[in-house]
Structure formats: C-alpha cells, structure tokens
C-alpha cells in the first residue's frame, strides 16, 4: 500500500509529460509552431461543433485534451528496455500491446507504455511508443557485433535516476522532493545528443543497413524522436501546416475522415536534418535525420471484430492502389479509402449494434429520477433514455500507421524487406514481463461503466 506522503504516480506522469514537452519545444522549434496550430484548431472545433464539445465535456476528455501527448523512443538492448519498464512503472505506466514493424521494413518491435485505467488516463494520458532494435536483423555479422559492442558500453540512465527507481520500488512510491528529482533525472534519458559515439564511417555503415539502426546505435542515448499532440480535426491541421512553415507528409495515416472517427489518424512533417559531431570529425559537423513532428486525431476503440473489418478495408484499398501511398497518388488513395470504408458503419449506434467498437455508459438525469428499473436491460435503458453511451477513446497505436510514419519520415530508401516473423516471446523476455492486451483493457472499462450504471440505478449486476 502506498504511503500517504507519496506523490501519486499519475501526477508524476503528468509532470514528466509537461517537462518533456518543454524540453522538446526547445530542441525542435517547429514543435512550438505545431502546438500553436493544434491549439488554434482545437479551439475552432470546440467553438463551432457543439456536439463534439458536449461529448468531450461529458466524458471528461476536455480536461485532458491539452495534456494529451505521445512520445516515441528506440532502445538497443534488453537491459535498456527492462530498465525503461521500471522507470515508466514509477509513473504508473505499463507496457500495452505488442507491435511488430518488420513486415513494413522497420527492424524493431515495440510496445506502448501508458496508464491502463480510465481514471488514471484522465489525469494524464501520456504514452510512449517504445521500440527495441532487432540486432539479429543486421545481415553483416561483423557489423552486428560492432553495434552490440557499442550498445554494451553505454548507460542511458543517470546514476540518480537508477537510485530513484530503486527507491520507488523499495518504498512503494516517491515523496515530493524525490518525485521532482525523478522527473529531472528521467528526462535526461530522452534528451537529444549532438555528439555521436561512432566515427562518420561507422555511422555510414550502420545507416547503409537501415537508417533507424544508425539512429539507435550511434548515440549515447535514445533521444525522443517525436512528441505528438492530439487534435480534434487533423484535416484542418494538415491543410494549414504549410501556412506555418511546416511541410506535411502527403497522406494522413489511418482510416479516412468520418462522421464518427475510429482508431487513430496521424500526420507529420519530415525528419529534421540536424548537425552531429562524429567521433573522428572534431569541429567539422556531420548530420543526422531522425526527429520529426507528428499530430494525431483519436477516435473510437474498436473490438476484435471492428479491427478485423478495419484491416480488411485498409488492405483492400492499398491492394487496389498497388503502391505505397505517396504524394503522386495521394488523391487516388484517399478516394479508394473513402470508397472501401463506406462498408464500415459511420454512426455510433451502427457500430454498437454490430459490436465493432467499445463504449462507455453513463446514467442520465432521467434515469436517476426514474422508478422501477430493477428489471431493465441495457438495451431498455438506452432506448428509454435512462442511460447514454459515448465511444471509448482509442489509447493505443496502429502497427501499419506507425510503420508508415517511420518510412515516410526516414525516406523511401529506409524500407527493407525482412524475411523473418515477429518474435513477441523474445520481446517480452527482454522486457521482463508480458505485455498487456489492449482489447482486454477496453472491455474492462466498458464493463465497469455498465456496472456503475446498474449500481446507480439499483439494478442487479448480472443484468
């Protein structure tokens, strides 16, 4: 049991998210411009669309909208991944989901560290998409051994951060001063490093295998490579980015524009070309491209049935396109997506009736004042207006979208074909624990909301 003087992990996570955003704004000036555009767009949507404003207010999402961020980080060894899991645990974050990006030519597998309970997510929805490099995919055995030796020599956590992690584990939490120190020390793991740990030639060898391999191996720490705010209308942001000096990628990743958004849509600007001092170049800088800006719009979390339908329609559109979506075919791709996704119901009731999405249920004023509801079913309560529903927001990531973002920002040459299968067991062994099933979390949240409604209305829970 946590001591009453300990700072709540959700508040530590909230503070860390704010500190991360401040640091990234200093390191990547375009991030500041992006944030201003997203904030302006969100204000416009809330002012002009009363339905969205009502929905966000009734679910409590309006309070978390300005806090919403997701970051991404890539590590090189099992020990780094396992220690990151311990660091994130101090902030109440667990590894949710397993993502294999090798089918898209990206030599990593990943998880998303985040809070898992809807109450904790309301305090801070901060999440970090965390990837582990698959060194076994480096074909050249000598280069693979070199990469391993470089990674083995580095320590990506400050000594103070490690001590604070151990203290939190031993005590069950951190007091106020320790929590402040933890945020400060943990932030160092995510900071950008201009000095490479390899020579220019070694960097080129790693980059020739895959630019992401060079990004992970060639530096003393795994810098945060993007930090993503949530917008309420990604199409407006995409259209207005050029006016703010930002060049967006050609295609928004994820599902097409809909009346009822589903899953996740993302867009971004290309990786920055940043000066780097290689180990053998002294004051003559080289360059490295890794960090980029990204924006997301979140929709309803889909059930397994909904995900299967989403995957089928997405694959059908891409199969008909017969190419990777790019600037030349963007208009045709968008048209194909709209065409194929016409099969996916675009009303909340349609998605609920076909069991395609998860929902949260809330008792209405009418329900609270009603009598004789002890025998009512959920369908009865919805029909008679005693209970209302709202889509459960999707808190996770899309494997295809994540891979698409990586490819489009690292450049077309970054894509490689790997003839290997995913290895969830190896990832979870490195992590030191199983990943959490995201669909199970959504189902639990939905059931809790139904149980809360029944309790408030005096209905037996087994209804």
UniProtKB/TrEMBL annotation:
GO molecular-function terms, A-Z: dioxygenase activity
Cofactor: Fe(2+)
Enzyme class, UniProt record, top EC level: oxidoreductase
InterPro entries on file: HGLS, YdcJ_bac-like
Protein name stated in the entry: 2-oxoadipate dioxygenase/decarboxylase
Keyword Chloroplast: no
Highest taxon above the source species: Bacteria
EC id: 1.13.11.93
Keywords in alphabetical order: Dioxygenase, Iron, Oxidoreductase
Organism: Pseudomonas fluorescens
Alphabetized Pfam families for the sequence: HGLS
Family to which the UniProt record says this protein belongs: Belongs to the 2-oxoadipate dioxygenase/decarboxylase family.
CDD domains given in the database record: VOC_YdcJ_like
């Amino acid at each position: 049991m946590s001591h009453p003087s300990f700072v709540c992990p959700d508040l530590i996570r909230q503070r860390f998210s704010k500190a991360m955003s401040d640091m990234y704004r200093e390191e990547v000036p375009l991030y500041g411009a992006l944030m201003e555009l997203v904030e302006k767009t969100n204000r416009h949507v809330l002012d002009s669309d009363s339905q969205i404003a009502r929905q966000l207010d009734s679910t409590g999402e309006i309070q978390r909208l300005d806090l919403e961020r997701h970051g991404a980080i890539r590590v090189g060894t099992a020990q780094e991944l396992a220690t990151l899991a311990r660091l994130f645990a101090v902030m109440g974050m667990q590894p949710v989901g397993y993502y294999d990006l090798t089918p898209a030519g990206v030599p990593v597998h990943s998880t998303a560290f985040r809070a898992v309970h809807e109450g904790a997510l309301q305090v801070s929805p901060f999440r970090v998409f965390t990837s582990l490099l698959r060194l076994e995919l480096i074909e050249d055995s000598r280069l693979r051994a070199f990469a391993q030796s470089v990674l083995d020599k580095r320590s990506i956590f400050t000594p103070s951060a490690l001590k604070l992690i151990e203290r939190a584990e031993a005590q069950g939490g951190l007091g106020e001063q320790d929590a402040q120190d933890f945020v400060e020390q943990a932030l160092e793991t995510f900071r950008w490093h201009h000095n490479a740990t390899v020579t220019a030639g070694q960097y080129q060898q790693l980059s020739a295998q895959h630019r992401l391999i060079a990004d992970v191996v060639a530096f003393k720490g795994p810098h945060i490579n993007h930090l993503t705010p949530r917008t309420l209308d990604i199409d407006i942001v995409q259209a207005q980015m050029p006016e703010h000096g930002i060049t967006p990628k050609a295609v928004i990743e994820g599902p097409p524009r809909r009346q009822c958004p589903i899953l996740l849509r993302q867009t971004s600007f290309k990786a920055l070309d940043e000066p780097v001092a290689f180990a053998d170049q002294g004051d003559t800088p080289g360059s490295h491209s890794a960090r980029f800006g990204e924006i997301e719009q979140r929709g309803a979390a889909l059930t397994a049935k909904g995900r299967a339908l989403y995957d089928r329609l997405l694959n059908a559109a891409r199969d008909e396109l017969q190419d990777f979506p790019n600037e030349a075919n963007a208009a045709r791709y968008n048209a194909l997506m709209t065409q194929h996704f016409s099969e996916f119901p675009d009303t909340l009731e349609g998605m609920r009736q076909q069991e395609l999405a998860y929902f949260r249920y809330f008792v209405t004023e009418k329900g609270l004042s009603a009598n004789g509801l002890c025998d009512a079913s959920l369908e009865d309560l919805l029909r008679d207006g005693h209970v209302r529903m709202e889509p459960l927001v999707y808190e996770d990531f899309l494997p295809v979208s994540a891979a698409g973002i990586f490819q489009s920002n690292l450049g077309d040459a970054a894509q490689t074909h790997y003839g290997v299968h995913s290895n969830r067991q190896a990832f979870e062994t490195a992590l030191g624990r199983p990943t959490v099933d995201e669909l199970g979390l959504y189902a639990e949240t939905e059931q809790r909301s139904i149980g809360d409604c029944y309790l408030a209305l005096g209905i037996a829970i087994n209804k």
